[in-house]
Amino acid sequence: MRTLTTLDSYAALLAAADRDPLVEFELAPEPLAPPLALGDAVLFVRENQLGSAGAVAIGPHDDVEELLRSDWRHQPGWAACRSITADRPLRPVLESLGVRGLGTWDSLSIRAGELVRRPIPRNVTIEHDHDAAVARDFVARHHTARWIPPDPVGEEWTVLRDNGTGEIVATGLAAYTPGRAIRLTSIAVDARQRGRGLGWAVTQALVDRGLERSRTVILGVDEDNLVGRALYRAIGFRLDHELVSGLFPGGPSRGTVDPPSDEGVHA
């Protein structure tokens, strides 16, 4: 049986992961736990949009399965880890290990030159750096988002305002990941205004603004959010991973560690 190897730096992890987007765009240079490798699989700690930490295993599925069945949770720095994320085909492996509360989601990213543009709907104005309290209230009223970030780094809300009524009709949040990429969350459209292309428009505006601050914009979307998944792929986001996340027995209640993402839009 092969043994686990401890990677001594972020650079070593990035190289071992072949510059995987989850490592390159989401992790800070100072790992939250010593990264581990087995064969071509790597294991590291990712901080989600709520600021909670969870283990992520990526690489060839056979290697990842062997890693997950190893004693990694007994390695120095890993004893407190209670959640795990892996590629979706590994769900049966996670279930066999007793992982519970499993949720499935997609990890997406976009860079300069990849955005597919559409004209902004008529009689709509884009406003950046909007009042956070107002935007959060809009999301609470018009979106089923369960995971609005409580205190994101570099928080900036973009809104679309109807020129006729003066009301906000769509919004979304851009904030930094620990890796200094921009993550989009809490994209929402007024339920009474759907069908006008506002979901595309606010996402396009968020990406434009995000790429002024970072070379990469990322987001996550739940597998069952069919509207959001279709929109983000059509607008130019690339699929980096199809993931499954869950909690080990004895972990905290669902929602406190590494929840599936909920950045969907009902356009």
Q: How do you describe this structure in short?
A:
The protein has helices at residues 10-16, 21-24, 61-68, 91-96, 132-142, 198-213, 226-235; strands at residues 5-6, 36-38, 41-47, 53-58, 83-87, 100-111, 124-130, 156-162, 168-176, 182-189, 216-222, 238-247.
Descriptive account of the structure:
It is a single chain. This protein is an alpha+beta fold and 267 residues long. 23% of the residues lie in helices and 31% in strands. It contains seven helices and twelve strands. A twelve-stranded mixed beta sheet has the order 1-2-3-4-5-12-6-11-10-9-8-7, sandwiched between helices. Strand 3 and strand 4 form a beta hairpin. The C terminus is likely disordered.
Helix content: 10-25%
Strand pairing plus helix content: what structural class? Answer: alpha+beta
Mean pLDDT: 91
Distance between the termini: 50 Å
Which word captures the global form? elongated
Proportion of β residues? 25-35%
Poorly predicted ranges: 252-267
| Total of DSSP H or I helical runs spanning 4+ residues | 7
Strand order of the largest sheet: 1-2-3-4-5-12-6-11-10-9-8-7
What composes the largest sheet?
12 strands, mixed
How do the helices and strands follow one another from N- to C-terminus?
EHHEEEHEHEEHEEEHEHE
Strand-helix topology:
Layout lengths: L4 E2 L3 H7 L4 H4 L11 E3 L2 E7 L5 E6 L2 H8 L14 E5 L3 H6 L3 E12 L12 E7 L1 H11 L13 E7 L5 E9 L5 E8 L8 H16 L2 E7 L3 H10 L2 E10 L20
Parallel strand pairs: 4-5, 10-11
Antiparallel strand pairs: 1-2, 2-3, 3-4, 5-12, 6-11, 6-12, 7-8, 8-9, 9-10
Labels describing this entry:
23% helix, 267 residues, elongated, 7 helices, alpha+beta
